[in-house]
Amino acid sequence: MSAKRGPLSHNASLPYPPELVRRRYDRLAPRYRLFEWIFWLPRGIRGRAIRKLDLRLGDTVLEVGCGTGRNLPYLQDAVGSNGHIFGVDVSERMLARSQALCERTGWKNVTLVRTDALDYHAPRMLDAVLFGLSYAVMQNGKRILNHAWSQLRAGGCAVIVDGKTMPGIAGRLLHPLVTLEMKATVLGDPDHNACADLRSLTDEVTVEEELFGAYFICQGRKGT
Fold first, then answer.
1. For the residues 135-154, what does the mean pLDDT come to?
2. Which of 118, 140, 130 is nearest to 14 (CA)?
3. Among 37, 85, 94, 198, which is disulfide-ready with 220 (CB 3.0 to 4.6 Å)?
4. Which pLDDT does position 4 carry in this prediction?
5. Which residues pair with residue 111 across a beta bridge?
6. Domain count, the chain
7. Quick one: pLDDT at residue 209?
Protein backbone atom coordinates (compact mmCIF):
# COMPACT_ATOMS: atom_id res chain seq x y z
CA MET A 1 0.00 0.00 0.00
CA SER A 2 1.34 3.43 -0.88
CA ALA A 3 0.17 6.80 0.37
CA LYS A 4 0.73 10.04 -1.46
CA ARG A 5 -0.13 13.63 -0.71
CA GLY A 6 -1.34 15.82 -3.52
CA PRO A 7 -2.17 19.53 -3.54
CA LEU A 8 -5.47 20.79 -2.21
CA SER A 9 -6.96 22.82 -5.03
CA HIS A 10 -8.03 26.43 -4.44
CA ASN A 11 -10.93 25.66 -6.81
CA ALA A 12 -13.09 24.06 -4.13
CA SER A 13 -14.79 20.82 -5.08
CA LEU A 14 -17.07 21.14 -2.05
CA PRO A 15 -19.83 23.64 -1.04
CA TYR A 16 -17.63 24.99 1.75
CA PRO A 17 -14.05 26.29 1.80
CA PRO A 18 -11.66 23.33 1.39
CA GLU A 19 -9.91 24.09 4.67
CA LEU A 20 -13.24 24.02 6.55
CA VAL A 21 -14.12 20.68 4.99
CA ARG A 22 -10.73 19.24 5.79
CA ARG A 23 -10.92 20.37 9.42
CA ARG A 24 -14.48 19.07 9.84
CA TYR A 25 -13.64 15.61 8.50
CA ASP A 26 -10.40 15.51 10.44
CA ARG A 27 -12.51 15.97 13.58
CA LEU A 28 -15.10 13.42 12.48
CA ALA A 29 -12.57 10.73 11.54
CA PRO A 30 -12.31 8.99 14.96
CA ARG A 31 -16.09 8.58 15.24
CA TYR A 32 -17.15 8.60 11.61
CA ARG A 33 -18.65 5.11 11.81
CA LEU A 34 -21.25 6.41 14.27
CA PHE A 35 -22.86 8.40 11.49
CA GLU A 36 -23.99 5.17 9.83
CA TRP A 37 -26.29 4.79 12.84
CA ILE A 38 -27.21 8.46 13.10
CA PHE A 39 -28.32 8.56 9.45
CA TRP A 40 -29.85 5.05 9.42
CA LEU A 41 -27.55 3.71 6.71
CA PRO A 42 -29.23 0.55 5.35
CA ARG A 43 -27.42 -2.58 6.43
CA GLY A 44 -25.36 -4.13 3.63
CA ILE A 45 -25.74 -1.20 1.23
CA ARG A 46 -21.97 -0.85 0.83
CA GLY A 47 -21.59 -4.43 -0.35
CA ARG A 48 -24.55 -4.10 -2.70
CA ALA A 49 -23.05 -0.95 -4.19
CA ILE A 50 -19.67 -2.58 -4.78
CA ARG A 51 -21.35 -5.52 -6.53
CA LYS A 52 -22.90 -3.00 -8.95
CA LEU A 53 -19.38 -2.06 -10.06
CA ASP A 54 -19.15 -5.46 -11.81
CA LEU A 55 -15.50 -5.77 -10.84
CA ARG A 56 -13.41 -8.81 -11.69
CA LEU A 57 -10.20 -10.10 -10.14
CA GLY A 58 -7.28 -8.02 -11.35
CA ASP A 59 -9.37 -4.90 -12.10
CA THR A 60 -8.51 -1.31 -11.21
CA VAL A 61 -10.99 0.85 -9.30
CA LEU A 62 -11.06 4.42 -7.99
CA GLU A 63 -13.05 5.49 -4.96
CA VAL A 64 -13.72 9.23 -4.86
CA GLY A 65 -14.02 10.27 -1.23
CA CYS A 66 -12.71 7.04 0.30
CA GLY A 67 -12.74 8.41 3.85
CA THR A 68 -11.75 5.97 6.59
CA GLY A 69 -11.77 3.00 4.25
CA ARG A 70 -15.17 1.52 5.06
CA ASN A 71 -15.51 0.30 1.46
CA LEU A 72 -11.98 -1.06 1.10
CA PRO A 73 -12.72 -4.61 2.33
CA TYR A 74 -15.49 -4.98 -0.26
CA LEU A 75 -13.30 -3.58 -3.01
CA GLN A 76 -10.45 -5.90 -2.01
CA ASP A 77 -12.72 -8.93 -2.24
CA ALA A 78 -13.81 -7.78 -5.69
CA VAL A 79 -10.42 -7.06 -7.31
CA GLY A 80 -8.19 -9.46 -5.38
CA SER A 81 -4.50 -9.05 -4.66
CA ASN A 82 -3.69 -8.65 -8.35
CA GLY A 83 -6.08 -5.74 -8.75
CA HIS A 84 -5.51 -2.17 -7.61
CA ILE A 85 -7.53 0.34 -5.62
CA PHE A 86 -6.98 4.08 -5.82
CA GLY A 87 -8.58 6.30 -3.19
CA VAL A 88 -8.76 10.07 -2.95
CA ASP A 89 -9.98 12.28 -0.12
CA VAL A 90 -9.39 15.80 1.24
CA SER A 91 -9.05 14.78 4.89
CA GLU A 92 -5.64 13.70 6.14
CA ARG A 93 -7.02 12.03 9.26
CA MET A 94 -9.66 10.13 7.32
CA LEU A 95 -6.96 8.84 4.98
CA ALA A 96 -4.72 8.02 7.94
CA ARG A 97 -7.38 5.58 9.11
CA SER A 98 -7.59 4.06 5.63
CA GLN A 99 -3.83 3.70 5.61
CA ALA A 100 -3.83 2.10 9.06
CA LEU A 101 -6.44 -0.40 7.88
CA CYS A 102 -4.27 -1.30 4.89
CA GLU A 103 -1.25 -1.78 7.12
CA ARG A 104 -3.16 -3.98 9.58
CA THR A 105 -4.50 -6.20 6.82
CA GLY A 106 -1.32 -6.25 4.73
CA TRP A 107 -2.95 -4.83 1.60
CA LYS A 108 -0.21 -3.74 -0.80
CA ASN A 109 -2.45 -2.82 -3.72
CA VAL A 110 -4.00 0.40 -2.40
CA THR A 111 -2.82 3.90 -3.31
CA LEU A 112 -4.25 6.75 -1.24
CA VAL A 113 -3.94 10.40 -2.25
CA ARG A 114 -5.01 13.50 -0.33
CA THR A 115 -6.17 15.92 -2.98
CA ASP A 116 -9.13 17.62 -4.58
CA ALA A 117 -10.82 15.04 -6.80
CA LEU A 118 -10.75 17.49 -9.71
CA ASP A 119 -6.95 17.48 -9.55
CA TYR A 120 -6.58 13.70 -9.50
CA HIS A 121 -5.51 11.70 -12.53
CA ALA A 122 -5.22 7.94 -12.15
CA PRO A 123 -1.98 6.50 -13.55
CA ARG A 124 -3.95 4.13 -15.79
CA MET A 125 -7.44 3.65 -17.17
CA LEU A 126 -10.03 2.54 -14.64
CA ASP A 127 -12.39 -0.42 -14.75
CA ALA A 128 -14.76 1.21 -12.25
CA VAL A 129 -15.35 4.35 -10.21
CA LEU A 130 -17.14 4.50 -6.86
CA PHE A 131 -18.63 7.47 -5.04
CA GLY A 132 -19.34 5.87 -1.69
CA LEU A 133 -21.46 8.26 0.40
CA SER A 134 -19.42 11.21 -0.86
CA TYR A 135 -21.41 12.75 -3.72
CA ALA A 136 -23.79 14.66 -1.46
CA VAL A 137 -20.81 16.59 -0.07
CA MET A 138 -19.54 17.77 -3.47
CA GLN A 139 -20.52 21.18 -4.76
CA ASN A 140 -18.88 20.44 -8.11
CA GLY A 141 -20.14 16.88 -8.15
CA LYS A 142 -21.00 16.88 -11.84
CA ARG A 143 -17.56 18.18 -12.80
CA ILE A 144 -15.89 15.61 -10.56
CA LEU A 145 -18.06 12.84 -12.00
CA ASN A 146 -17.22 13.93 -15.56
CA HIS A 147 -13.52 14.01 -14.68
CA ALA A 148 -13.62 10.51 -13.22
CA TRP A 149 -15.78 9.27 -16.12
CA SER A 150 -13.13 10.43 -18.60
CA GLN A 151 -10.69 8.03 -16.93
CA LEU A 152 -13.08 5.07 -17.13
CA ARG A 153 -12.56 2.48 -19.83
CA ALA A 154 -15.30 1.64 -22.30
CA GLY A 155 -17.65 -0.87 -20.72
CA GLY A 156 -16.66 0.15 -17.21
CA CYS A 157 -19.09 1.18 -14.47
CA ALA A 158 -19.49 4.19 -12.23
CA VAL A 159 -21.59 3.73 -9.10
CA ILE A 160 -22.88 6.42 -6.77
CA VAL A 161 -24.36 5.33 -3.44
CA ASP A 162 -25.66 8.07 -1.19
CA GLY A 163 -28.54 9.53 0.75
CA LYS A 164 -31.11 11.97 -0.59
CA THR A 165 -34.41 13.62 0.19
CA MET A 166 -37.17 11.05 0.50
CA PRO A 167 -40.02 11.33 -2.04
CA GLY A 168 -43.55 12.32 -1.11
CA ILE A 169 -44.99 14.07 1.91
CA ALA A 170 -42.61 12.33 4.34
CA GLY A 171 -39.64 13.78 2.49
CA ARG A 172 -41.14 17.27 2.51
CA LEU A 173 -41.86 17.10 6.23
CA LEU A 174 -38.44 15.72 7.14
CA HIS A 175 -36.47 17.86 4.69
CA PRO A 176 -35.69 20.79 7.05
CA LEU A 177 -34.50 18.45 9.80
CA VAL A 178 -32.43 16.25 7.47
CA THR A 179 -30.85 19.28 5.80
CA LEU A 180 -29.94 20.85 9.14
CA GLU A 181 -28.56 17.57 10.47
CA MET A 182 -26.41 16.94 7.40
CA LYS A 183 -25.01 20.45 7.25
CA ALA A 184 -24.29 20.45 10.99
CA THR A 185 -22.36 17.20 10.79
CA VAL A 186 -21.06 15.86 7.47
CA LEU A 187 -21.63 19.07 5.44
CA GLY A 188 -23.89 17.21 3.05
CA ASP A 189 -26.73 18.30 0.75
CA PRO A 190 -29.71 15.93 0.40
CA ASP A 191 -30.89 17.75 -2.75
CA HIS A 192 -28.00 16.82 -5.03
CA ASN A 193 -28.60 15.55 -8.59
CA ALA A 194 -26.33 12.51 -8.67
CA CYS A 195 -28.52 10.25 -10.81
CA ALA A 196 -29.35 13.02 -13.27
CA ASP A 197 -25.65 13.83 -13.53
CA LEU A 198 -24.88 10.20 -14.32
CA ARG A 199 -27.71 10.04 -16.89
CA SER A 200 -26.13 12.99 -18.69
CA LEU A 201 -23.15 10.75 -19.43
CA THR A 202 -24.83 7.49 -20.47
CA ASP A 203 -28.20 5.96 -21.27
CA GLU A 204 -27.20 2.78 -19.44
CA VAL A 205 -28.26 3.78 -15.93
CA THR A 206 -30.03 1.75 -13.26
CA VAL A 207 -31.22 3.06 -9.89
CA GLU A 208 -32.16 1.12 -6.78
CA GLU A 209 -33.70 2.93 -3.80
CA GLU A 210 -33.61 1.79 -0.18
CA LEU A 211 -35.15 2.88 3.12
CA PHE A 212 -38.25 4.34 1.44
CA GLY A 213 -36.15 6.32 -1.02
CA ALA A 214 -33.82 7.90 1.54
CA TYR A 215 -30.85 6.07 0.00
CA PHE A 216 -30.01 4.95 -3.52
CA ILE A 217 -27.49 3.01 -5.59
CA CYS A 218 -27.07 4.45 -9.08
CA GLN A 219 -25.05 2.53 -11.66
CA GLY A 220 -23.96 3.88 -15.03
CA ARG A 221 -22.07 1.91 -17.67
CA LYS A 222 -19.80 3.60 -20.20
CA GLY A 223 -20.62 2.74 -23.79
CA THR A 224 -18.22 0.69 -25.87
1. 93
2. 140
3. 198
4. 53
5. 2, 86
6. 1
7. 96
Please spell the DSSP secondary structure of 61-97, one letter per residue. EEEET-TTSTTHHHHHHHH-TTSEEEEEES-HHHHHH
Spatial CB neighbours of 220, under 8 Å, sequence gap ≥ 6: 157, 158, 159, 198, 199, 201, 202, 204, 205
Count of residues in the chain? 224
CATH number at residue 98: 3.40.50.150
Residue range(s) defining the domain that contains residue 187: 2-221
When pLDDT is cut at 50, 70 and 90, the band that residue 67 belongs to is very high
Task: Collapse the DSSP code of 211 into the 3-class scheme (helix H, G, I; strand E, B; otherwise coil) and give the result.
Answer: coil
Residue 49 pLDDT class (50, 70, 90 cuts): very high
pLDDT at site 16: 67
**Sheet containing 126-132: order of strands:** 2-5, 110-114, 84-89, 60-64, 126-132, 152-163, 215-221, 205-210
Question: Residue 161: which H helix or E strand, with range?
Answer: strand 152-163
Angle, CA of 204, 162 and 41, to the nearest 5°? 130
